Input
Amino acid sequence: MLDFLGLVVFAIFTIMIVGAGLGVVLANRVTTSALLMAFTFLNMAGMFVLLGAETIAAFQVLIYVGAITVLILYGVMFTPQTPRAYGLFFQKQTPWGAVLAALAALPVIVVAFSFHDAKTVAPPGGDLNALAIAVFNSFAFPFEVASVLLLAAMVGAIVLVKRESPAAPPAAPLRRSEPPR
Amino acid sequence: MPLAAFIAVSAALFFIGVAGVLVRRNAVVILMSVELMLNATNLAFVAFSRRLGVAGERGSVFVVFIFVVAAAEVAVGLAIILAAYRNRPTVDVDQLDEMKG
Amino acid sequence: MSVDVVGLVWLVPGIPLAAAIVNGLFGRRWLHRTTGVIASVALGLSAALGLAIFFAVLASGGQPRVVTLYEWIGVGDFRVDTAALVDPLSATMVAVVAGISFLIHIFSIGYMEHDRGIHRFFTWLPLFVFFMLTLVLADNYLLMFVGWEGVGLCSYLLIGFWFEKPAPYTAANKAFWMNRIGDWGFTIGTILTFLTFGSLNFHEVFDKVAGVAQTQPLTITFIALAFFLGATGKSAQLPLYSWLPDAMEGPTPVSALIHAATMVTAGVYLVARSTPIFADAGSALVVVGIVGAVTALFAATIALVQVDIKRVLAYSTVSQLGYMFLACGVGAPIAAIFHLATHAFFKALLFLGSGSVIHATEEQDMRRMGGLRRKMPITYWTFLLAGGALAAIPPLAGFWSKDEIVGAAFTSGHQILWSVGIGTGLLTAFYTTRMIYLTFHGEPRDHHLYDHAHESPPVMTVPLMLLAAGAVLAGLVLGFPPDAGFIHRFLAGVVSAEAGQQPEAPNYVLIAVLAAVAVVAALIGIGIGYAMYARRRPDPAAVSRAAGPIYTLLVNKYFVDELYDHRIIDGGRALFGAAWAFDAHIIDGIVDRLAWLTALIGSGLRRVQTGVVGNYALSIAAGLLVLIVVYGGYATGMLHR
Amino acid sequence: MPVGPFGLDPLLWAIVRLLIAVVLVVALILNSSLLLIYLERKIQAVMQDRIGPYHTGPFGLLQTFADALKLIAKEDVRAGHTDVAFFIAAPALVFTPMLASYVVLPFAPPLVGADLNIGLLYLATLGSMGVLGIVIAGWASNNKYALVGGLRSAGQLISYEVPGILSLVTAVLVVGSLSMVKITETQTGPLVNLFVLPLAFATYLVSSLAETNRTPFDLPEAESELVAGYLTEYSGMRWGTMLALTEYGNVVVVCSIMTTLWLGGWNGPGVAALPILGVVWFTLKVYALILVFMWVRATLPRLRIDQLMSFCWKILIPTTLLNLAVTAVLLIAFPSTLVPVAIANWILLVAFIVLLPVVQQRRLRQLRKTLRARTAAAGVAS
Output
């Protein structure tokens, strides 16, 4: 019975993920795309919970919904989106791209179903301990490297976005102190 | 749950992301599509890591690293988009063709 | 406790190099005039060590020793080390070079004091010393070539030291190009040596010379001639001499060090070092002797009429170098080295004396000087001693060495060369007298110049006095008694044509007669000079009018420069023009066509680069598809490896 | 066929249980929010020497209920050109994560929604989700004040999440678990974590003030400059949900986290005998913290946005990082006792409180100097 419940939940998540993913690509407004992307991420977190990876799911929400989506929304708001016809939201190569993506997807999905015998087994007691031990023992060095990568990305992003500091001082308080001419 | 189902969902989302990169004009949406692709691989990693159930969390560790990479990528990617937008007020990738041969 | 002084030989060139590096890196910003002190201290250390090595070699009875620093090139059997050969010859050269360099560095502190480029000067001068010491210490031809080229480079840099003016840099270029021709000879000689002997190491080559000379006498002759071509370039012999007088455009200490005492003697050193090759080279030795004698006479005649004090000295240097080659040519390399050493002292002294005069008067034209004896007594007296040595007045240094060369020419049976040497000695005495009279005696011809003249500071006069002591005593210390003096015993094992044989007892009667003839010739030259310039009887102007065309010929230096300019250079221009045309039209033409073809293909392919990111992403996805298909093909067995 | 409680089908029971829990929690939040608003108004009044609400009901107790009824009854107003779907979705996006937080709050030993072993991480995750709703609300309102308020809020929340989570991690290092129940169970005696990690408590208190948009960090809804921030265009029950319910619900959540981590949760005299008594202790501790929040609101003025951000990035984050490093090193060095950690933390707390004004003074002086230099340069230029 619980298996059946799990299947139902899985089906719901699948529909949500695929539907929202398609929505990200097809929506004619960038904000909609961003929100649908966040929705996809949330459902993906649900998938992780189904797989018994609650920690990963928590990180998923924390990072993707809490940070990445907000960052992308910032990006949307700082680059004004000009309204225009729906068709112009797509590139000229759209037919080619769609066909190519579909062609590549077909064999992969076929291969994916070749795993039909394998079962997934959720570990007892959650994945927190196992994940922590793996990260801080076997993968301690890559973990440190990843932190350096994040630092580099942070510095890089700041440098890229920073404007040249304007040489001109703030005008308003000055004008007041100047004698009228 | 069968592994195949998770892998299939992962593949579907991945190729939705591929299609998004290939068909959309808006650079921000392309960035989102890339994030979808990364997330699809996350699902595949976790699913494969659950295949035996007890074999540690090797697959999930990679997911953690993908989180790191994704966060870094979005930060730098958005910075690049904003910098490009400042030079040339458009976020349409097919108008940013200064590299044309 | 005993220190292995010879093992430290690499420090002798190393210290000047360090000084050059320090001055070069920090001179402009921070050191300025301190560079002179640094360079002088370094040279002092180097000279002290050089003398210590000289005495160490002396104490060890002249045993040659190789001090290897590291392996430089090792390809198969071919092996060249960065190694120093310490034997009496190189020890003598090191002592002379380092010692005179030290004195000239001290002199330069005073001479260059007011020059803006003093840090450059004191970067290049120690660098020159480093290369010169490398040249004399090298134990193989390749390392010697490094020093050879290095001194050429430093010579170029220092001749063109005042590059803001056109004359110095033109002279620098001329020196460089003429040296190139000589270096080409050296290169040919080195390559031939390697091909013939399979080695470049002095000892290995010299061990094989006798055997090879039996089978391939022509090759040996050719190698010797190639090396001699290199020597004529560096030592300013006919036909490559004309750069040296022009090189006087550089600062006077440079003229003293490089263009009188050390670098120009490198050719002599090369010939002396290669004595085993030249001894078996047959007719090449005759060529060396003839070229030396002709150059000596030729340069001396030009020196008769020059009015620039440094040019007189320059032609005198060429002439004296001719004597040295004459000595090599008549089979008396020891006499050549002997003369090299004494000449280094008195010619450096002459140049420094003239530098002192130039420093005081800022004038080089002797016609505007005169009477400076009273203003600059130290300079005058030291200059007089050096002039006497140059004119071969006994018992000054020049007498012993030059007399030995002339005597060797006579005893070896070359009477013609001997008479040329005697004639040149007469001319030398004459122009030396003329130079001294015009500069220091008589009434001041330019009172403005005279009034401003002053004796140089001690930093300049002390080196003058030390060199004067050398110019007086070097001949006696090194070369008495004639043909059997200290230097002969010291060098006999290294550069004597027949090494190891006991030299015959010299015939002192013959030597005395020959010396008397030479001294009489010199006194006649001095007498004529005194008559013409002190007594005005006959008047020099009248003599030059009477000589007419000969005078014109001499003043214009036999029109050699014009000959080079118009004949050789024009011929060269035509050849080079043809080569350029071939290069421009045939070689470049092929390259241009290839480039055009590439551009054509590229302009077709550039359409692929749309600049649209989406297209690139599409191609990446296409690549992904190909990967999937290929991988799937292998995985399902439809494709086979 | 397994049978659940009350003879129901387990599948059905799961759904029914979910419904009951949601209704209970919503009711709890609604009532506690109303009570908190009343309390806030009363306490502010007392502190400002006023009377506060007193008309409706005894001591004005029914005032907030009347307000709530008024809000529900109000017309649903939307400004022109708002983005309808997002405008409606935003309050839900803000409210839902807050609601979901109550699942793991340990009110009493028998009264825990779910004892997740990642409980604290779960709470942090939900805390970060609220940002999304606020940004969307600001964007959908089609109003400059709202947009600026939303962006400010997003920046503020994302920034203050960092010191908040770092403080939590420091505490987790000491207790060694992420499960809220286990964390509570480690602090049965009177020596709760507050005495071990006072600096972490202080930094978390500050950052939770910012995360709940309370004074002195209520920049997103700064009346004097932004009207009401991202709430400008909202009215009626949407406004009520966004502001009243969510804000006060979040205050309860962060205070519960602090109670659990630092004040010993439900532990208190008599809990061992009568577990349900834990609710009383828990609630008392939470309300004590909430009183601190209200006290702060009545006392401190609002910061400027640049002061807010630079305080977070230049002072709070370095402090928490230092605290985390020191705690981690001391825990590894002395695995059996917490005394060195406690000593170090108290020293750090004192140093923080003493040095903070000094540092701020220096920064202020430098700021004034650069401003003067700029003014002088501008004077020369003009």
Summary: The beta strands of chain D are 106-108, 111-112. The mean pLDDT of chain D is 82. Chain D has one domain: 74-369. Chains D and C do not touch (no CB pair under 8 Å).
